[in-house]
Amino acid sequence: MKNKKICITESWCKGCGICVEFCPANALTMKDNKVFLKIPEKCTSCGLCELRCPDYAIYLEVIDDDGKIDARK
């Protein structure tokens, strides 16, 4: 079993808001012109935010049951 966790590199975010618009769970918002995970428990780890971010500022990290990060996704 693998778990996915949303990660945001705030310094890379240019505040376009595309990820917020594509989030089907409305888990993301903009705060101080940067993307912010407003409701973590609503995030379904669907990956649409990662797919649509033109700046690669938001991504899903895949974690195995033993807590190791799986770079293969």
UniProtKB/TrEMBL annotation:
It holds the Pfam family Fer4_7. This is 4Fe-4S ferredoxin iron-sulfur binding domain-containing protein. Keywords: 4Fe-4S, Iron, Iron-sulfur, Metal-binding. InterPro entries: 4Fe4S_Fe-S-bd, 4Fe4S_Fe_S_CS, Fe-S_Ferredoxin. Signal peptide: none annotated. Residues 4-33, 34-63 form the 4Fe-4S ferredoxin-type domain. One of its GO terms (molecular function) is metal ion binding.
